[in-house]
Amino acid sequence: MGGNEVRSRIPQLRLDELLEELQARIDAARGTRDRVHSLLEAVLSVGRELDLTQVLRRIVEAAAVLVDARYAALGVIGPDGESLSQFLTVGLSEEEIARIGPYPTGRGLLGELIHRPEALRLEDLSEHPSSVGCPMHHPVMRTFLGVPVRVREEVFGNLYLTDKRGGEEFDADDESVISTLAVAAGVAIDNARLYEEAQRQQRWLSASAEITRALLSGGSRSEVLELIAQRARDITGADLADVSVPVAGTGSLRVELALGGDTAERLGLVVPAEGTLSGEAVAQREPVTTLDLAGDPRLSGGPRLFDDLGAAVAVPLGRAGGLVEGVLLLARRGGEQPFSGQEIGPLLGFADQAALALELAERRRDAEQLAMLEDRDRIARDLHDLAIQRLFATGMTLQSAARLIEHSGASDRVLRAVGDLDETIKIIRSTIFGLRAREDATGHGLRARVVRVVEQAQPTLGFAPRLSMEGLLDTDVPAEAADHVVAVLAEALSNAARHARARRVEVSLRATATQVVLVVQDDGVGIPEQGRRSGLRNMAERAEGLGGELELSSPPDGGTRLLWAAPLAL
After folding, report:
1. Which one in 67, 168, 329, 370 has a CA-CA gap of 20 to 30 Å to 389?
2. Between 383 and 289, where is the model more confident?
3. What crossing angle do the helices spanning 446-461 and 479-495 adopt, rounded to 10°?
4. By the 8 A CB rule, do 49 and 188 touch?
5. For 416-459, what is each residue's pLDDT tens digit?
6. How far apart are CA 544 and CA 324, in angstroms?
7. C-alpha dihedral sign at 183, 185, 191, 197
């Protein structure tokens, strides 16, 4: 009886085992179905976005959810292919991120996937040979799963996942799921890039049309340049945009337009072309880029005004003759993306439009100058042919009539009137000479160069400086001294515009028998005690190099008086 009972229970035990195995397979199938469903939802969620930043954020979040990871990150590989230019994280609060410090750049274990772009699973990441440890305040992490993200066969970045919840290790299924997500992520990133590029091209086209309308409607040089710089800054997401123009004969550049940042500090600033990014663009006549505007060892010239800036590009504004009329400089904050070829290409078109604006402004100025000179010549001719001849004839008549006047008092009055007419004729002749002498302002002499520098300073100052010149400046002043005079004048006017807050500036230049003397006086706030002295030091060095001197003083009614002198015999 006992044996029969045992035999009857054996089938029951086998059935229970089969039922348990079946239940386990059903649970596994349900889990697989749920995971596949979650994966599909993640793929759809990632592919639904078109903004690249949102796409990257969704990829990281979806990866963490799919494999139940406590921490997840996506590192974007930079243009050098050796480091990370972007790092997005999930699982860390803002306070934790701030305590940890700067994001990683791709050293150690993170760099392992950069150099060997293939999936990597670890039971304990600290035991891997490439591990370099974690910074202070970084949470302890043990298990690790890394998968590369490719966009059209190019490795875009890597997904990093650590610490699976429940203390478990990442398995082959987790790797398979994340690898599948990485493929979908690559497609989504590519779509977002294409959409972003299409939007950017549309904005470039709209901006180009706007600038063309401004050019054709006769907009001024400053208005068109500001429009070009502002649109380029907006479209590229730059924090700073400057337009600099060469200062003739000095090897320097003057910042004519400044947008973003401390514009008052940069506007009107005169910097050497050598050792600056803008100067490199002038020398090479093509766009020049840097990943670190503040720390690039090539850029040692000029004052340090870009300490918080990183990626930058300088685009020359040229014309058909090959001359560089100016430079457009765009810069981003440190840590932001460098300027790509897709951004620099449209900038070249903008540069052509900017060069056209500069050339049109020059042609308009030439036309206005020609009309003004023609008008002056007509006035001078009329004064000479009509006024002087009639005054001379009247004087001759009065002088003849004086002989016939017997009353001595009346005769003296007539002779005084004749003397007054002679003085009037001299004044008119001097005026005629002055009108015609101003034609030299279109040439290349020192007088003309000084006039141009003063005119160029007017937009920065907000008013026209008063200018007076005396002596044989074009013939007696040596070329080397003339170059220094122009550079010192540009720097002095720049300082008056940026620091003095002046409402009046007077410029006096004269050539005596022994020296050339430049005086620039303003009614501003004077020279601050703690202000930078690099510009003044440069002026003093220029004077000392010629055997001259620089004097600074404060007039009784306030402001600053700068006297720069150099001998004529060098």
Report:
1. 370
2. 289
3. 10
4. yes
5. 777 777 777 666 665 665 555 544 444 567 888 888 888 888 87
6. 31
7. negative
pLDDT score at 384: 66
The side-by-side arrangement of strands in the sheet containing 270-272 is: 270-272, 252-259, 240-247, 324-333, 309-318, 288-290
The answer to whether 522 touches 554, Cβ cutoff 8 Å, is no
pLDDT at 516: 92
Per-residue tokens: 423: 């003085």
280, containing H or E segment: helix 277-284
Question: CB 335: neighbour CB atoms within 10 A?
Answer: 11
Residue 142 · residue 64 · CB < 8 Å: no
Give the length of the chain: 570
Place of tokens 């002056």: 376
**pLDDT score of 323 more than 90:** no
526 Rama sector, left if φ>0, alpha if ψ -120 to 50, beta otherwise: left
Cβ atoms 233, 260 nearer than 8 A: yes
Question: What does the pLDDT look like over 153-178, one tens digit per residue?
Answer: 788 888 888 988 888 888 888 888 88
Helix ranges restricted to H, 67-217: 94-100, 108-115, 172-216
Tell whether the model's pLDDT for residue 563 goes beyond 90.
yes
Distance, in Å, from the CA atom of 369 to the CA atom of 272, rounded to the nearest integer, reads 30
Report the alpha-carbon distance of residue 113 to residue 157 in Å, rounded: 9
In whole angstroms, give the CA distance from residue 147 to residue 180. 10
* Inter-CA distances, 289 with 236, 356, 406, 470, Å: 14, 23, 90, 45
Distances (CA, A) of 359 to 91, 173, 354, 356, 450: 56, 66, 9, 5, 21
DSSP labels, 538-550? HHHHHHHHTT-EE
Rg from Cα positions in the chain: 38
**pLDDT at residue 24 greater than cutoff 70:** no
Q: What is the pTM of this model?
A: 0.54
pLDDT band at 557 (very low <50, low <70, confident <90, very high): confident
Nearest C-alpha neighbor of 504 from the set 552, 450, 461: 461
